[in-house]
Structures are given as C-alpha cells and as structure tokens.
UniProtKB/TrEMBL annotation:
Gene Ontology molecular function terms on file: metalloendopeptidase activity; zinc ion binding
Start and end residues of each Peptidase M10 metallopeptidase domain: 153-218
GO cellular component: extracellular matrix
Gene3D superfamilies given in the database record: Collagenase (Catalytic Domain)
Name of the protein in question: Peptidase M10 metallopeptidase domain-containing protein
Lineage: Bacteria, Bacillati, Actinomycetota, Actinomycetes, Micrococcales
Keywords, alphabetical: Hydrolase, Metal-binding, Protease, Zinc
Amino acid sequence: MLGTLVVVGAVIVGAVAASPQMDLADLWEATVVDPHDGEAGSGGEGYSFMITSSSGSPVTWGCDARIEIEVNPEGAPRGYAEPLTSAVARVNEASGFTFEVTGETTDRDFDDRHRRTVLLGWADEEEVPGLEGTVAGLGGSTYLTGPGGGGRAVGGSVVVDTDDGGWLGFGGIDLEVLLVHELLHVLGLGHTEDTTQLMAAENSGQSELGEGDLAGLAALREAACS
Ligand SMILES: [Zn+2]
C-alpha cells in the first residue's frame, strides 16, 4: 500500500514540474501529411504510439484512471447515443481502460483539455481547422511529462466533422467505428501503416480491431499498470 502511495506522489510531482502539450491525431486522411500519425519508429507490428516519454514508454492514462467523457451534443446526428455507448463499451473491453460518459456539456474548448474531461463533440472545419478536407474526426489527449521521464494523459478530446463524419454512416464507416478509432487515439495509439488495422489512417472498410490494434492496446495497458 505504501509503495502505491509513493508512486502516485511521484507522478503528481512530475506533473507539477512539467508543461502540458497537446497532441491531436488526424483521421482518415490519405492525401495530407499528418504530423500526428504516431511517433516514428514507436510501437510494434501493426501499431504505433502517439508519443513516448524519454524513458521509452508510451504516454497513456493511469492504470486505475476513470476517464470521463462529456458530450456536447450540438450538431450531433440523431441517434448518436447508441453508437457512442457501443464504442465506449468496445474500447473498454478491448483495452482494460475505463472510459465513462458522465453527461452533457456546452463546452466547446476542444484544444485546451489540461486536467479536464475528454470533451466529445461535433464541429466543422471553420471551428476546428484540423477537420479540413476529408478528415472525418480528430482524437487525442493532453499529457504531462515529468522530469523523471514519465508521462501521463490528463485530458483529451474527440471531434467529429459535421460536414463529413457527423453522419451515421460516412463512406462506409459508421459513427461507432469512427469513435472507436478516435478513442484509441485518446488512449495513446497513433496510426499504423498496416491498412488491415482499425488504426490505419485511412479506413478501407475495417470495423473490428485487428491484431495490431489489440497488441498496441496491450502495450499501453502494460505501460500504465507496470
Ligand atoms: Zn486517426
């Protein structure tokens, strides 16, 4: 028990001494170079990490974190709640992490999520320029890195494009699949060049998590809980 308390204390100290950075990943975009594809060379076969700390571990959430999602329903398609619930359940089961939809909000600050909930909402490219072109959604987390080399996610956001991806069905991709992809970015996975995985930058019809996706989630969980 004491050991646990010491570890928690060290993480908090590291967080206080660090500066927050935002890392949002582009989605489903084939033509524009995406600087947030994942850290080059990180991860393993069929997966990459959004970012790794200086100690080499992927940055993700705490092992026991209750990751709260607040939904801003403005601009959402009718019937969004069911695919959202399914997406959260799928990600929780596959990852071992715990997302929880805690309610609705009018908050639209998708960028500054420092020590705040994961804000999930709908917007257009005028409001969120990252949604420009064929990008259907964005997802990522705000994280802190400490002087000891560790890193922890402390907030995040998911934005679905009202022009392209706000629909319940976009180019063959349904909203549930889109949200699963985005929530995996929030957990810390980047894109993979393996086009058979759900974390490929461009979706070519896959709706289930592939072996690489699952291996990546297992690696995040290992980093969070070891
Ligand atoms: Zn993506």
